[in-house]
Write a structure and sequence with these properties.
The protein is an alpha/beta fold and about 375 residues long. It has 12 helices and 14 strands. It folds into 2 domains: about 130 residues, Aspartate Aminotransferase, domain 1 (Alpha-Beta Complex), CATH 3.90.1150; about 230 residues, 3-Layer(aba) Sandwich (Aspartate Aminotransferase, domain 2), CATH 3.40.640. It has a 7-stranded mixed β-sheet with strand order 2-10-9-8-7-3-4, sandwiched between helices. The chain has a 3-stranded antiparallel β-sheet with strand order 11-12-14. Strand 7, helix 6 and strand 8 form a beta-alpha-beta unit. It is globular.
Amino acid sequence: MTKAYFDNNATTEVDPRILSRIHELYQSGPMNPGSPHSFGRKARQVVEDAKARIREALGLKRHRVLFLASATEALNLAINAFEGQQIVASSIEHPALEEALLARSCSKRVGLIDRTQFDWKGLEKHLPQCQLAAFIWANNETGLVLPMERIAESCRVTDTKILVDASQAPGKLEGFFEEVSALQPDAIVLSGHKMHAPVGIAALVLNEDFPIRPLLFGGSQQASLRPGTEPVVLADALALALELSQESATYDQMRSWKHQIWSAIGQVVPQATKTILDESQCLANTLHFRIPGLSAERQIIAFDLEGIALSSSSACESGASEPSRVLRAMGYDEVASSEGIRISLSRLTKPEEISIAINAIPRVYSTLAPKN
């Protein structure tokens, strides 16, 4: 049985307040926003209220809100209208965007210099040729935060539309809500289960000028851009999750706990190295490190036996261990790219989970002798 959960960049525990609200809505009766009767009108009001709350939280009051099943769907929908046009993205995008761009064979890439520094010359080179810039705000694997404000400024110079994947930002990136309001991106993607809402809900928030071509065809829901009955209860859950991320974030606490865990690791394995040294470039909840000569797979298994869940983000679909594409893009060799470990906390992480991890670290690493 898992005693400590440190894989919150993969998915999060549903907030009890959101569970309570979900139960309340389901208890209130059937909900189809397209129905003409009172039940339908109530459902429509819930959906429209959820959209308004999302716009309010983000400070994007003139943007449209589309509800989708996942951030993967949202990203694919967002770039679908740019078929045959050039799109610029980073070399450390989430597979949801990475694979979508590869399938279209129409993208330019901006890499990293010295592993964590954004290649501004690369961006300046590609932007004039590109109709869309699509960037992950914070990398899900390492926690590296890209300088989105300056990226957006560069896009405005060339009149390039900007799509921001903010799946990992709410509740993990301090200043996110203020920054997104100031940036006013053309489009931004949110993922519910990354911020304590259930799996199965995401949002694409976009301005009126952002071109959209549907992936699916059917009814007239959501202006026919995403047909199918709107997920009323999940839409409300996403809005509430965003609000709670704004109101209840625990950035200082998460950073303090990260430091405690890292100190415990350093005492036992002094050769351990952090991937992101500058805390201002890293999500408050994420600690990514590697131990030379010690594979991520062995560490994950050892921690799992202690009831501690963490990850590496380096497993392929078949389940076999592979070098991390993100670490390779950051300049690490194949061996080093198989050694990365990610610990990701959340605002629902409990103090006792931190204690469990700190107490387990000496036991775990005493059984794992790095191979020279």
